[in-house]
Amino acid sequence: MSFFDTTPLGRIVNRMSKDVYAIDETIPANWSMLLSMVFSVITTICTVVYVTPWFSVILIPLGILYYASQRFFIKTSRELQRLDSVSRSPVYALLTETLEGLPTIRAFGVEPQFAARNEYMLDRNQRAYFLNISANGWLALRLELVGTIVATAAALFAVLGHEANAGMAFAGLAGVSLSYAFNVTQNLSWIVRMSSMVQTQMVSVERIYAYTTMEVEAEMKAEPIKQLELENAKWPSQGKLTFKDVDLRYRAGLPRVLRKLTFTINANEKIGIVGRTGAGKSSLVVALMRLVELDGGQITMDDVDISTIGLHDLRDKVSIIPQDPVLFSGTIRSNLDPFDRYGDDAIWTAIKRANLHQAVTALDDKVDERGQNFSVGERQLICIARALLKKSQVILMDEATASIDANTDRLIQESIRDSFKDCTCLTIAHRINTILDSDRILVMDKGSAAEFDTPNQLLKNPNGIFTNLVEHWRDEKNSP
Fold it and tell me: ABC transmembrane type-1 domain: which residues (predicted)?
C-alpha cells in the first residue's frame, strides 16, 4: 500500500497506458519492420556485389559509419526518451486531479491557475519531446550523407566494371545494380532508424519491468495448516485485541507514527478513539489491517498474532468503514455484496438497518463511478450497510460519520449500537458526542496511548487531554 502513497497517480497512468502500448503495439511492429528491412538489404547487397564485385570493398567502412551513427544516437535518444516519459507523468496527474475536482475548481474560480499549471507542464514535456525530435533529425541528416556515399560508390564501380566488361548484357546488369544501390541506402537508413527506435522504446520495457520487481505485500493466504486451524476455531470468535509495544512507520527513514503502543480491548467492547491531528488515530487502522507492516511489537486478535495470518484472511474478518466512502461503478448489489455471498433478504436487511432504504429503490440501482450519483452521506451509508452485511467480529470506523449531518449521524449511531452490539467496535471520533457512550475511550497523543479508561473516569481528571477535548467541543457547540 505504501507504493500508492509514494507514487504519483500520473506516473502509474503513464506506465499503464503509453508504456504498455509501446510494449504491446509499437515494439512488435518495429521489430517486424526491422527484420523485413534486414532481409531486403541482404538480398540487395548480394545482387549489387554480384554485378560489381568492387562494391564489397566499401561494405566494412559503410557498416562502421552506420554503426557509429546509431551508437552515438542511441546514447542520447534513450535519455531523451526517459525525460519525455518522466515529464509526461505530471501532465496525466494534473489531468486526473482536474477532472476529479472540477466542481471545486469552478466553485473557487481558479480555472486560470490550473490552466497555467497545465501549460507549464506541457511546456516541460514539449522541451523533452522537441529534443527527441531534433536528435532524430540529426540522425536522418547523417544517414542521408552516408547513403549518398553508397550511391556514388555503386555508380563509380559500375562505370569501372563496364570498362572491364563491355557489352549490352553488363550494361543492363549495371542498371539493375544502380537501382538496387539507390534502394539499399533508403533501406539501410530505415534499419538504423528502426533498430534505434526499438532500443529507445526498451525504456518502456524497463519502466514496466521495474513494477514487476517491486517489493510486494505479505502472502494473501496463511499456511494451509494454519488456515485450517483458524477455520476450525471460527477465528475470530470473540474480537479481543491486544497491542503490545507496537511501533509503526510508513517508510524507512520516516519518523514513527506509533510508539510503543500497548493496550488491550476486551471482546465486544465499544472503544472510542480520540486525539489531536497527527496523534496516530488512523495509524491504528493501518496497523490492524496490515496496510503497512509493523516496525516493532505485536498485535493479536483472539490471542492469534495477526502477522502470521494471510492478508486476505485477516482483512476478510475485519470490516472497515472509512472516512472517505469508496464505491465502484456497478449496482447497489455489486457494491454491497461484490462476491455474491448473500441473498436479497440479507442485503435488504442491511440496507434498512443503515437507514438507506429511502435512497435505494432496487438492488440493481445504478452506481456511477465513485458513487457520484449519490450524496456523500448516502455513500457513507452504503459503506455502513456493507459492513452490516458482512457481520464481522471486529469493526473499524475511521471517522465514518464525519461527512454526515447531525440528524443522520444520530440515526447511524443508533443503528450501529443495535447492529454491532455483539462485535468489537473501534470508532475514531470526529464528533466527541458520538463516542461519549463508549465502554472506554482511548486518547492518542504522539503515537502513544496517553489515556485509556471509561468516559466518566477520564472526565474526572480536569487536566486530562480528553477533558480538554470535551470542553473544546462544548465551547464550539455553544458558540453562536
Answer: 1-200
